[in-house]
Design a protein that fits this description.
This protein is of the alpha+beta class. It has seven helices and six strands, in the order αααββαβββαβαα. The strands form two sheets. Strands 1-5-3 form a three-stranded antiparallel β-sheet, covered by helices on one side. Strands 4-2-6 form a three-stranded antiparallel β-sheet, with no helix packed on it.
Length: 171
């Protein structure tokens, strides 16, 4: 985003800016400001136990062993909507206690059955819908050819920097 917004010229300078923002506390203060703008107190950032809690936590297992190739963030958002964490219509009420907790990131190796994400839900039917969608949002590839693996490794660092801390900020 820093590169796209012309705040940084390249990946190295973007990474430096992001790390500095995290280390000096600017990123945390900005997150607190976002929470306040949404009606929270800001304390929720440092004390997540003050957030509303869903009645169910459902682990979503990886369907196979392999590497996480990418995460479809827009589809993760749809899963949150299915759980009640977004508006389907302007009159929809948002359930602030529901959502997704991503346990893995791009490039991670996972074993079959290992948890990819945890759904926080209050409705069994909605949780089933969200649970069905998650594996498609976080594709796991078993075996990549050497050429694909080399390409994957070369692009991984840039991808991680650009999407750095996305899932941690969103959770």
């Amino acid at each position: 985003m820093l590169i796209a917004g012309k705040k940084a010229e390249d990946v190295a300078s973007a990474e430096k800016m992001l790390r500095q923002s995290i280390q000096n506390g600017d990123a945390l203060r900005k997150l607190e400001a976002f929470v306040k703008a949404q009606g929270g107190t800001g304390e929720e950032v440092s004390h997540p136990e003050k957030l509303p809690a869903a009645s169910m936590q459902i682990a979503v297992p990886s369907p196979q062993s392999g590497y996480i190739s990418h995460i479809q963030c827009d589809e993760i958002g749809v899963c949150s909507l299915l759980l009640g964490g977004g508006r389907e219509t302007k009159d929809s009420v948002i359930d602030l206690s529901v959502g997704l907790e991503l346990k893995k990131k791009v490039g991670d190796y996972v074993e079959k059955g290992e948890t990819l994400a945890v759904l926080h839900a209050n409705d069994a039917g909605k949780s089933r819908a969200g649970r069905r969608e998650i594996p498609a949002c976080i594709p796991v590839f078993r075996d990549a050819t050497t050429e694909t693996s080399d390409d994957f490794r070369r692009n991984l660092k840039e991808f991680q920097i650009i999407h750095m801390k996305h899932t941690e900020i969103m959770v």
